[in-house]
Amino acid sequence: MSLVFYFCLLKKRQDKIQRFPLSPWAKAGMAIKDLEDEAKEEDHDHSKPHRDQHYLLMLATHGRFQFNLDFQEVIVVAPALLLIFPGQVHHTIEMLEPEGWAIGFDPSLIDHELQLIMERGLKGPVALDQQENLYHHLTTLTDLMAKLQSAGLSGHGIKVMHSLLDALLELIARQLTLQFPPGDPNKLNRAAMIEQAFNQLLKQHYKSWKQPAQYAAELNISVAHLYDTIKGITGASVSALIQQYAILEAKRLLCFTDLSVKEIGYETGYNEPVYFGKLFKKITGFTPLQFRQQYRD
Q1: Same domain (yes/no): 45, 138
Q2: Which of its termini does the chain have fewer beta carbons within 10 Å around, N or C?
Q3: Same domain? 57 vs 35
Q4: Of 177, 199, 233, which residue sits at a domain end?
Q5: Long-range Cβ pairs for the range 157-160 (8 Å, 24+)
């Protein structure tokens, strides 16, 4: 059996995937932990699949890390950045000689433009160069944030922490945008903003909104414009992305809960079990039961 899916062998199954908020000791909508301490002392068991309600930004300065993010094995070799998005099912497989920080922060602390850049540029680990100014700036800012947090936060201290987080994210965004393809910045930004808004709506409404027209109406654009924009950026149609996101959630529920296939179909917005089964096999190559059996047995 593949190591990637060993975590499906859980002694006790659940009807829901565990979802965790920020740490109870978090202040100002954010919490910073030393990665070395994180490996020893955790608010919850990071070795078991779970979701977070917040962003989790890892700035690794030393060590090797192995994670699973939504059925993908991710290897991070420091120095590097990794961003885990709210709602992603993930767990830690291994951390070797970890050094650096993990910054959890509420989605309300990051504006739409930064969210857009992070979603486009931080879909996986990003390597850093210890000799570059960016690495020095990021580690200096994060170390300062950790020290301020340890000293206690209130009043202006909270504002300072928010400003430092914003500066940290802006530095990362600046570096990421240098990697984006050339073109008309305004045109790219308009299209990307539509894609981001569509993705946000998709995460909220995939269960009940199955038609592209519902998303286009909410975005106040034509179906054709939405189709052309999404197809141009992702290479996939709007309908395909709606189906793919629903099937991703179905895979999560098949692997991490004891819900029946019929119940999972309902949970992902498909009231007809036969149609759900055919769609699942079309996208994954497996029937729902084959998928569950393959990654549990």
Answers
A1: yes
A2: C
A3: yes
A4: 177
A5: 158/27, 158/28
Return left, alpha or beta for 87; rule: phi > 0 is left, psi -120 to 50 is alpha, else beta: left
What are the phi and psi torsion angles at 105 (to 5°)? -145, 145
> Do 170 and 193 fall within a single domain?
no
Spatial CB neighbours of 82, under 8 Å, sequence gap ≥ 6: 57, 58, 60, 65, 67, 74, 76, 122, 124, 125, 126
The β-bridge partners of 257 are 14
128 and 252 housed in the same domain: no
Choosing from 177, 212, 240, the residue where a domain stops is 177
How many domains, the chain? Answer: 2
CA separation for the pair 206, 215 (Å, rounded): 10
- 83 in helix, strand or coil? strand
Residue-wise pLDDT for 112-140, tens only, equals 778 878 887 888 999 999 999 999 999 99
